[in-house]
Amino acid sequence: MRIKWTCTDAKMFFIGYAGYTTTNIQPEFTRLLADLTTPTSPPTLLFTIFLGANDACYRTPDTENVPLPTFTTNLKTFLDAILTSPSPSLKATKILLITPPPINIPSPETSPQPADFPNPKDSRGYRTYRSKKRYADKVLELANAYTEVSGGRVVGLDFWSAVVDAGLEDQGRGGEVPGSGSGEKYDEDRLPGCGLDTAKEFADGYFTDGLHLGVRGYRV
Q1: pLDDT digits (tens, 9 = 90+) for 175-188
Q2: What spans are recorded as compositionally biased (Pro residues) (predicted)?
């Protein structure tokens, strides 16, 4: 999907591909960069990369769609291609890396765990929930590393935490003691949408089907 939005001073393109990962989107990225670096291309002021939501999902009980090391390499490839491009149109381009969001697993009361996963933390859903956090952390780690070497041209946005914080506010937990220890605000057993019986789902509107964001999710 490609959407063009024009204001008085700039043109903005929103390009999205359903179900894509950092691996299978590479040909599209190459084509996009070619479009942005023609002899008549205007300067690209901002390039946003919002990938990882599909990469982090478990394809099998033991394997993500795109393993974390490959995901990291793919993102570095995208960043390096922009930052080292000889094209004048990309010489001053700023890059915004956005982390993948969490998912929303129904609570055990509304969606009982399968019998073959007596421990809910062994379920594919919960493992994907934790995987999304690992991939989000990697995006921020890369953004911080590239911020230094690029002279500030790369920055990261922690969308995962922003969505979780919004969910906690809705549940009246926004004022809890920060931290990830037992009983604290970011206790992994009590995070919104993690699917454990010690946690609550995100409120209606954040997700359409547990994986894809709804209106409230996009408004965070």
Answers
A1: 888 888 888 899 99
A2: 104-117
CA–CA–CA angle 61, 110, 220 (5° rounding): 80
Contact in structure between 108 and 195 (CB atoms under 8 Å): yes
Half-sphere exposure of residue 105, counting CA atoms within 13 Å on the CB side?
Answer: 27
Q: 50, 16, 20, 47: which is closest to 157 by C-alpha?
A: 50
| Predicted structure pTM score | 0.89
H or E element at residue 31: helix 26-36
CA distance 198 to 183: 10
220: nearest Cα among 207, 209, 201: 207
Secondary structure (H, E, C), 99-134 = CCCCCCCCCCCCCCCCCCCCCHHHCHHHHHHHHHHH
The CATH number of residue 209's host domain is: 3.40.50
Number of independent structural domains in the chain? 1
Structure tokens at 20: 């894509």
Phi (first) and psi of residue 219, to 5 degrees: -85, -5
Share of the chain above pLDDT 90, in %: 70
Q: Which domain holds residue 47?
A: 2-218
